[in-house]
Amino acid sequence: MGDNLILSFRPDLKIKEEAGKIYLQSPVRSLVCQRVSRGLRQSMKTLTAGGGSEDFLSELAFKEDGAGGLANFYYHLQQFIERGFISYNVMMEQEILAIYTPFSGAPLFNEKPFKQKRRYRLSRFTYSRRDGQEIILESPLANGRVVLTHWLAAAVLHLLAEACTAGEIRTQFPTLPKKSLQLFLELLLSAGMLEEVDDAGISPGEGDEVLQQWEFHDLLFHARSRLGSHEQPVGGTYRFRERIAPLPAVKNPMSSERIKLYRPDVEKLREDDYPFSLVLEERKSIRNYADKPISVQQLGEFLYRSARIKELIKANPPAGLLYEASNRPYPGGGAAYELEIYLAVNECEGLAGGLYHYDPWQHELEKLSTRTSEVEGLLKYCSAAAGLKELPPVSLHITARFQRVAWKYQSIAYSVIQKDVGALYQTLYLVATAMDLAPTAIGSGPAKLLCRMAGLNYLEESAVGEFILGNKRI
Ligand SMILES: Cc1cc2nc3c(=O)[nH]c(=O)nc-3n(C[C@H](O)[C@H](O)[C@H](O)COP(=O)(O)O)c2cc1C
Hints:
This protein is an alpha+beta fold. It has three domains: 2-83, no CATH class; 91-225, Alpha-Beta Complex (Outer Surface Protein A, domain 3), CATH 3.90.930.70; 235-471, NADH Oxidase. The chain contains 16 helices and 22 strands. The strands form six sheets. The chain has a seven-stranded antiparallel β-sheet, with helices on both faces. A hairpin with a 2-residue loop joins strand 8 (127-131) and strand 9. Helix 2 (54-65) packs across helix 3 and helix 12 (296-307) packs across helix 15 (413-434). The chain is elongated. The N and C termini lie far apart (76 Å). Bound molecules: flavin mononucleotide (FMN). Flavin mononucleotide (FMN) binds at residues 284-285, 385-387, 425, 440-443.
């Protein structure tokens, strides 16, 4: 590798010395070095201040500690590499072309032998974005991340959209030293961002039946919202705590035109309801509606039993509750209850057609519009998704107030929201079954149309689920 590959400590590694011990801490791993020799200390200083080649670092250790110090140096270097403390800098004369920082526990750099005559292409999962003041390269399949420090690195990536050999790249960029280019390609291979293609022009990713069925965005979402494929914090980190106030549990009123809804007698329901196992066994999607439309009283009972706020819980920081929470009939991540329900009403006895928002605290509908062509658009979309010949009596459009969840959770906010939608769907299904209604969940729907109709900011609140409902045909 020689002087073209410089090893350094990753920039976010925290190092402190106390009582003769050196403590190293990355975002995910730590190490305590005891009885640090002069040579090792020199090597660590160099790794912190710009780095050095492996040969240079080992010579430092040798000079200070003698031959015995070399084993100690290599032992520690191995510890640093395994913990993901080391960044690999590909040099181009005095400039850095790119920096690769493997995750802790990733396969060692340079494990995959690069072949001069073979053709390589970027994996379709590799992508580039700005992070702070850097352009970085990431992939849900990657073992680490790459910072593109020189424009030539980005230019090489452009060529790698098509399969090519290192030689073909060099003919385009003759000023790029051969060794630097080779190291850059080896680094991308090790990172899992580049793939070799065979003589037929097929890469393993393309031939693999499992990988073929992963779409880019699904795999990225999966990798980034679970542990193990990245080094970002995961869970309730409250990272906006000092800067942004959490949203209240209940939205501000959306309309002055309000309709009080029927409240069923829950005590009576406890006695008269179908038994739980019957409801569970009978639950199914029903897409056939009775001639008699669903009534506003049924709608009131349905929403009360599935989605009302049973209790508002004030924020109580000393007790660890940093935001206002609530209790509802369905479970919700962090008791944040970010989901809101909008109703597009086609036909409902006692309720004019139009668009409504459900206020789960007052148990009231807020009228947002009459039955416009856009309201019909929402109903039509659901009708098509469920394969209906007519419009459903009522469609529910479930939105998320994203920042209710994102204020608390890091890496998992959107996945928590999707799970919450699932929990609400099942509750809507069970309540509809207990009420002899016809329920069907819908898999996808328009997010921006509802924003326009209800005056929502897409990034603050937009649709994440749909559900259709009516009286079932017996
Ligand atoms: C997340 C989710 C999305 C769904 N999307 C649709 C849909 O777009 N159209 C539809 O007709 N049914 C949809 N369904 C209903 C399923 O087709 C149905 O639950 C499944 O076929 C099992 O049948 P069952 O509900 O009668 O037990 C969806 C269900 C779920 C849970």
